[in-house]
Amino acid sequence: xxxxxxxxxxxxLPVLFLLCGQALAxxxxxxxxxxxAQVGKTLYYDxxxxxLGYPMGDIPIAKGVCTDVVIRALxxxxxxxxxxxxxxxxxxxxxxxxxxxxKLTKPDANIDHxxxxxxxxxxxxxxxxxxxxxxxxxxxxxxxxxxxxxxIGIVSDxxxxxxxxxxxxxxIGRGAQEEDMLYQFxxxxxxxxxxxxx
Length: 198
Known about the structure:
Oligomer: single chain
Structural class: alpha+beta
Strand order of the largest sheet: 6-5-4-3-7
Distance between the termini: 35 Å
Number of domains: 1
Strand content: 15-25%
Shape: globular
């Protein structure tokens, strides 16, 4: 079929490719927004083991742990940590921290992605780890609350009243919150997902 509008096509095709590329690019800003959208919806901290569907399995939005804030926010951009961590652990189980208290001999898709040490290892293996630098909206940070107790959250695009410190979106025991707590605990990891991730 002949092209009746060659000039229009020449203008529209590049615009469409640009728009599609932007829609497919990972957005740190959107990660922060999708994490914030959980505030007021995830009301409780509940670390109980649960059997989940696979992939994209989740517990009810009203409850969860710190990792669930990150997992749920990433899923809005097509990144399912449940599936990605599980697939990597199936192939590389010995490279993940199999803490004796977990008593695991093989991966468990119900819980592996909901454990901070596993997410830290996965992010490191993907090349997301940063060595210093500013904390930007959409960055992921991990802490040690006390020996052996990890925590994770997402850097907000909002700042503390002084305008110096970014707020953190996380669940440390009272459901999803957006708070000034970046330096309250020992930081153990700083990660940034590249725009090419999908």
